[in-house]
């Protein structure tokens, strides 16, 4: 019975010929890496042990890749929005492509262009 926990094996793949226990890099749970799986991995040419337990692997499957950061998201690829504002300079109704912050003046495109030019 082998119960060693291998988190980051160095030096490539070794078929242990017995079930080994790995620690999931996502949830930290221990999961078995069986001889059958080891042989399957070896036959596929994989050189690393699996990093995640089967439930984490299933959870990640079908999910969009998000850079592994976790949290955040949104923004990129979102549909362009426009927010109605009242120009702080001339009082005209206008729209801006960002959510206006209360502590900052917003301008209509006319005033905005005038300010950039001057
Ligand atoms: Zn896990
Ligand atoms: Zn204006």
What labels would you give this structure?
118 residues; alpha+beta; 5 strands; rod-shaped; disordered N terminus; binds zinc ion
Could you write a compact summary of the structure shown?
The chain has 118 residues and is of the alpha+beta class. It has helices at residues 35-43, 54-60, 109-117, and strands spanning 5-6, 20-23, 30-33, 83-86, 93-96.
Textual characterization of the structure:
A hairpin with a 6-residue loop joins strand 4 and strand 5. The protein has 118 residues and is of the alpha+beta class. The chain has 3 helices and 5 strands; from the N terminus they run βββααββα. The protein has a 3-stranded mixed sheet with strand order 1-2-3. Strands 4-5 form a two-stranded antiparallel sheet. It is rod-shaped. The N terminus is likely disordered. It has 2 domains: 56 residues, no CATH class; 35 residues, no CATH class. Helix content is 21%, strand content 15%. The structure holds zinc ion (2 copies). The site of one zinc ion has 8 residues, from helix 2.
